[in-house]
Amino acid sequence: MTAPPLTEVHPEVWLLDVDQFGAPRQGGVYILPGEPAALVEAGTSLARDRILAALAHLGIARDDVGWIFLTHIHLDHAGGAGGLLQELPKARAVVHARGARHLVDPARLVASVREAVRDRFPLYGTMDPVPEGRLHVAQDGEAFPGGRFRLRAVDAPGHAPHHLCYFADGENLLFTGDAVGLYLEGTLLPSTVPPSFDLEASLATLHRLADLDPRLLLFTHFGPGSPDLLSQYARLLPAWVERVRRLWRSQVAEEELAASVVADAAREGLIPPGPARGDLAMAVRGVLGYLRHREGTA
After folding, report:
1. Distance (Å, rounded) from C-alpha 123 to C-alpha 172?
2. How far is it, in rounded angstroms, from Cα 113 to Cα 251?
3. Which residues pair with residue 143 across a beta bridge?
4. What is the mean pLDDT of the chain?
5. How are strands ordered across the β-sheet holding 143-146?
6. How far apart are alpha carbons 75 and 187 in whole angstroms?
7. Distance between CA atoms of residues 101 and 93, nearest Å
8. Whole-angstrom Cα distance, residue 58 to residue 277?
9. What gap in Å lies between CA 288 and CA 282, rounded to an integer?
């Protein structure tokens, strides 16, 4: 059997490439060996067997996994949680209070994702319900043992109101989820997806994360990055919103507007190889929702 695509990005922190959306280096799950062992993110339901194989490869018994730390409930981060919990009998999923009910009954969440991602929906898999007793609703600042680390939940709204980051005290590792955007092939990209992107909340979150003084950012999409990406993203987000706002004011149709913004970004060399065009088109739609809400036209 081929070894899982694992990389040790920090001592006792393994990044598993889950081949998200059918492409390498687009999405990952972090594995923390120890007592208890832990996962940061669950990927989509399509990643389950790859995650279980990686645990076996690292010598981690399924009974030894105590936590699945979910940054938020979007399907590329939490869609696999229900299926994984069926295989990891002692694990519980950690989630923001505003996301918990959608994991117990994911019907509305799945419908929202289907509307947001459109023809890319088959790449997101399915979502099994999570039994309420297998959930732990995290409080801001609450600490958990995970691997050899103490992980602290950090409320991090902006990308979504139910977003958490996790900070490894002592090591100053920050698991960013989507709060600091996408970091693909060395390029930082906006993650401003519908339905709940909020620019002001995102910028406040970035300021709060910078105050933690992280030494290493660990992106779900994808891999390790330097702390200066926090300030880079704080500059990128307003510029990105303004880029969309300019065309929105010209009353261009939504699909034409999204295509135009993505084409401009490609011409300027802002998009790395891979499926980032689809991500950016969705990010344009998220900004449009934010702008309509701000203008009272939603």
Report:
1. 33
2. 26
3. 152
4. 92
5. 143-146, 149-155, 164-168, 173-177, 216-219, 223-225
6. 23
7. 12
8. 34
9. 10
Question: What whole-number distance in Å separates Cα of residue 159 and Cα of residue 235?
Answer: 15
**Which pLDDT score, from 0 to 100, does residue 275 have?**
61
Q: Rounded CA gap, 78 and 43, in Å?
A: 6
Q: Given this model, what pLDDT does residue 282 score?
A: 87
**Which residue positions in the chain have pLDDT lower than 50?**
none
C-alpha 258/C-alpha 58 separation (Å) is 43
Outline where the chain has alpha helix (H): 48-57, 75-78, 81-87, 100-104, 107-117, 199-211, 229-249, 254-267, 276-295
Residues 88, 48: contact at Cβ < 8 Å?
Answer: no
Dump the DSSP string for 181-235: -EEETTEEE----TTT--HHHHHHHHHHHHHT--SEEEETTTEEE-TTHHHHHHH
How many residues belong to the chain? 298
Contacts (Cβ under 8 Å, ≥6 apart) of 254: 285, 288
Q: Residue type for 134, please?
A: R
Tell me if 202 sits within 8 A of 215, measured CB to CB. no
Give the start-to-end residue ranges of the domains of the chain: 6-240
Q: In degrees rounded to 5, what are phi and psi of residue 139? A: -95, 150
Q: Supply φ then ψ for residue 178, to 5 degrees.
A: -115, 10
The CATH number of the structural domain formed by 6-240 is 3.60.15.10
280 and 188 Cβ atoms separated by less than 8 Å: no
